[in-house]
Amino acid sequence: MMGGIPHTVVPSTAYYRQTANHLSGQGLGHLEMGPTNHMSMAHTTRAHPETIQWLLENYETAEGVSLPRSTLYNHYLRHCAANKIDAVNAASFGKLIRSVFIGLKTRRLGTRGNSKYHYYGIRIKPDSPLNTFPTDDSVVAIRQPPQSAQRGEYHTAESTPEGPEGASQPAELTPHQQHRQYLGDGRPELVPFPEIAWSSSPLPGGLTPEDLGDFTANYREHCEAILDVVVNLQFQMVENLWHHFWADPKPAMDGAPDEEMEHQLPKEKLLLLTSLDLVTDYISACDYLLYQGIVDFLIPNVLRPIPGTLTQAIRNFAKSLESWLTGTVHGYSPILVKSKVCSVVAFSQTLRRYTSLNHLAQAARAVLQNPSQISQMLADLNRVDFANVQEQASWVCECEETLVARLEQDFKSTLQQQNSLEQWASWLESVVHTVLEPMPMGPSSPRPPGSFSSSGPSTARW
């Protein structure tokens, strides 16, 4: 379902029995029932049996190896999208995978400010089709469509001979696969986040430097998770991720503590951390970088034709963002709330503006491809007395007559040549540079088109 999470497929009773037999015979022999893992077994039985089977078929425990948590979660999102299973948030998935593979450890690896949490003691099985997916040091993602997709023959990753489930029959396409050619190339990579430089003075409220380190690592992983669900066009899950991180960061455990929550800060510490200006500034900078990456992926070229279903899904997503966010950051410091709302409103407005521009661009493209309409426009333009228009406009603007005359001739010439929409865009860009280049730029000069906000980082080109 575009713009949301695919509906859940409810397996038959026979399938539940088959899966239960598979689990008891192949993969869960190491789940001895005892006082420490009773809760883990209970959590496993509540999980979708198809997901448990998928985990057992594709992963195994091993010493001396690790996988980024975001890698496993991205694999899981692909699995859910292909099988029409409601995906859970990253933390709930972490509890699930710990209930299936007992004894996993969590380690934070990477450079300061950009470290990521890894599961230590698990790997992809050597014969798993997941090994065919291109990877990097953080996540697994779709980089390039297969050659069959380039020919217009789209299949889910699970339906190809090399797919994760090894099936050979085509299956229904996921939203991402339906619209892959209109999105950005591959999964956008988040640029390195800034560091929080704290002096040697004590942190307030009993906070420690380790708390700051945990927060930056958690927030980076939180942003990675948001990027993953957007790349898979599971827009509704953004609200879920926000709620889990801000409104309910560390739910109470009705049993032994789950190591998945080891480095997750309770809300009390989040409230203290986000009352610090340097943390608020850090969050704002990270949000701008995240949103810029999402915009570049969803609408890589505003002139490129986009299907109406994808455009509407993006617009619905944009309209929901502010209400989703404000509902999750209630109770935090006004400075943090204002900062996050400002960035998400700008993000929402950018998506809506770009989709509107894309709609106008396609209407203009249709006109520019119609010779009779172009001929009519030329005839109408030739009846306009531009000299008279220039004389009247000179009272309120200081345009040089030679420049106006040249623009008139260039416009008519470009129209007569029946240029494409992209050629028109290039010509308009050259006009802007020609007119603005001689003008001095100073602190009071208006921000250039496409700049996001004066408070955002220079990489935000909105």
Automatic annotation (TrEMBL):
Domain RFX-type winged-helix: from-to ranges: 51-126
Keyword Cell division: no
Transcription regulation among keywords: yes
Chief place of localization: nucleus
PROSITE patterns attached to this UniProt entry: RFX_DBD (PS51526)
One of the Pfam families matching this protein, by short name: BCD_RFX
Any GO molecular function: RNA polymerase II cis-regulatory region sequence-specific DNA binding
Keywords: DNA-binding, Nucleus, Transcription, Transcription regulation
Coiled-coil segments: none
Domain of life assignment: Eukaryota
SUPFAM superfamilies linked: Winged helix' DNA-binding domain
Chain spans, region Disordered: 145-177, 439-462
Annotated Gene Ontology cellular component terms: nucleus
Ranges of biased composition (kind: Pro residues): 440-449
Composition-biased stretches (Low complexity): 450-462
Localization, UniProt: Nucleus
UniProt-listed InterPro entries: DNA-bd_RFX, RFX-like, RFX1-4/6/8-like_BCD, WH-like_DNA-bd_sf, WH_DNA-bd_sf
PANTHER family to which the protein is assigned, alphabetical: RFX TRANSCRIPTION FACTOR FAMILY, RFX, ISOFORM H
Protein name: Transcription factor RFX3
Source species: Geodia barretti
Lineage: Eukaryota, Metazoa, Porifera, Demospongiae, Heteroscleromorpha
